[in-house]
Amino acid sequence: MSQKRIGIIGGSGLYEMEELKIVEKVKLETPFGDPSDEFVLGQLSGREVVFLARHGRGHRILPSEINYRANIWGMKKLGVGQILSVSAVGSLKEEIAPGHLVFVDQFIDRTYRRIPTFFGESVVAHVALAEPVCATMRATLSKTSQKLKLTSHAQGTYICIEGPQFSTKAESNLYRSWNCDVIGMTNVTEAKLSREAQICYATIALSTDYDCWHTEHESVTAVQVVKTLLANVEKAKKLIVAVLPELSEERTCPCSHAIRHAIVTDKLMRSQASKNRLKIIIG
Fold this sequence. Notes:
Layout: E1 5-10, E2 21-26, E3 39-44, E4 47-53, H1 68-77, E5 80-91, E6 101-102, E7 106-110, H2 135-147, E8 152-153, E9 157-161, H3 169-177, E10 182-184, H4 187-196, E11 200-209, H5 222-243, H6 272-282
Parallel strand pairs: 1-4, 1-5, 5-11, 6-8, 7-9, 9-10
Antiparallel strand pairs: 2-3, 3-4, 5-10, 6-11
């Protein structure tokens, strides 16, 4: 199948666009278990898109409970070659105010309860992750955001924590000392798996709060996050509608062949079960 569809992972509220024509909803079974929800296939801005509610409809799945492997496998199965991830984040920098957008270019992984790889069980692979976000997609997002006059930041480091609790003040200040820009609970795992699946991946990070480090602002609460997020989602929708036609169908970036030299296991030593499980991912 051609990998020219564009995947969009975020909240179910993203589907509520007047311009979106929903074609069908697909429930997939994967070798890695059940995805977060049905995949919503449609047409938007002249492109074929696949939406997925990361936490399920009604936001019922914890960040640590998300079946990231099933979600990305499903995107690959449905012909997705590029993924736009829309996520709420806390700001760790004064200049990234609530309401701003950040196009993340780096991650720090502080999770510990997830399986961030499709490999294992007789097949070993080591993909390059020095640049974990597709540079082409990120540049296009930034350029389009500027045209729309949205307040955004062209790059930033996203520290991904396990959650579901927000940070302590000590943790928040530690992450600031590491020069992190934003904090969230989901995107690094998606980015790692997308790279293994040779899917381009980019984050539209929506700043909702100042975490808990800022002495002049109240510590982050779920109510505060949701209130700001609802306003930010409207900006994200506007950006998605405008950016889709700008994303090239022909991918020439390193993401599209990330696995080419990554598998180190001898072909004769790979189990048939693993080969079957990985067929959609690596061919």
